[in-house]
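sorry for the late reply, my laptop died twice this morning and i had to redo everyting from scratch. anyway the thing you sent over, i finally got around to it. pasting the sequence first so we're on the same page, its 463 residues, then the predicted structure underneath. double check i copied it right bc i was rushing
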Amino acid sequence: AAELLLGGALAVVLFGREIVSRTGRRWIQALGVVAIVAMVATWATVHLEERWLYLGGFAAYSFLSLAVIAASVQEGGPVRWLLSRPAMRWTGRVSYGAYLFHWPVFLWLSADRTGLSEPLLFLLRTAVTFGFAGLSYRFFESPIRTGRWLTGWQPWVVTPTAFAGIVLLITAVTAGPRPSYAGYDPRPDIEAATDFMNQLNTSTPDRGEPPSREAKTPRISVFGDSTAAALNVGLQFWLDRNGTGRPRMGKSELGCGLEREGQYRFQGKIQGRPAHCSDRDASWRETLVRDQSDMAVVMFGPWEVCDRKLAGDTQWRHLGDPVLDDQMRRDMLAAVDLLSSQGALVAWVTHPEVEVRDPKSGVAPRTPYPESDRERMERFNELVRELPERRPGKVVLLDLVSYLRTLEGGELDSRYRPDGTHLSAEGTLKLAHDWLETEVLRIYRGREGTDAPATATPEGGDS
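ok and here's the structure:
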């Protein structure tokens, strides 16, 4: 909107006027060159999710467009020469079609469908977009504009056909590739699981007896970050459906890692903790009292593998650095002590590796983000595996990593974790049905067995 408004204002200013000063023209031409360079740099480096764009950034960008337009209408100069090349003129003619086509094309040609990553994926999407735009201009837009088509009875046929084509296009674009599931297919249960979690979130549990290690149907709560929240859906749904446990909501906070102070560097951007993360100890205590949890399942990981600058420190560190390892160990032990303080058994989940995706394309960049380094998550899980020895009788290991490695797609199996970090709705239901519910109950009851699911049936079977 800002570009349209400012472009109209520029047209009013320039209409019927000619800049006769040679110096003035040179200044405008120079500004146009700077603006084009700035525009290309912006396209290459700025993500649409960045907040400053919506706080005046788009309006500021409009002035770059004005500078390019003003330079292009001057006699001579590099901007006019560049934009008058045949390829650029053709791009301008089909640009509106490209604008209309690019969104469905970019959705349709996903990384999952093509198997490509950047920059090849972008080049393919761009080529297909302009291919459609060129065909549309040649055979649809231009004939209509020149009155050579859609005369007489033709609009009565073409219009409903076009609408039908749009419906088919929307269907093709929005219908993602359907994963195949051997055994239990979780998709029919997604709506029921969503309704169940909404009810659980708004209900007040009956406190009943104090926490126990011998409950027939234990009260199980999940604590952690957004990955814990995703895990919680499938676990609570199957505990309720099978009547094997009493579901509790627990406390899973989006964007909150174990360490609440200092700074994180995620996708190259420095971040602090959101305000709602600062009162974790108090909110966890309230949750334990409310839920009367017999077992507390804990899951963290994605924030812990980021580059970190601890409070009072001047150096960026990551796991593997003794200073950060010691701090992480203290945070973990403090969490175990708090969650077990009311009598609950703590089950700490090993976290699978993460593949942080680009927020624009949804695919992993050619040069991975540092937090995608597998060694960092392995070091985090080494610290997790220390916990039962450091707090015997209080905490046990829930080895999700070992289970996922038995699957065809391993830790990053796209049927379970399509974004490379979180379990999907299908993934959490499938995981809980095939393994998680049974494994949680096994370790709660102290039954013999390995933490790794050697006897599990990863692709099917009933709970």
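Residues 27 and 273 are 46 Å apart (CA to CA).
thats about all i looked at so far, will dig more tmrw
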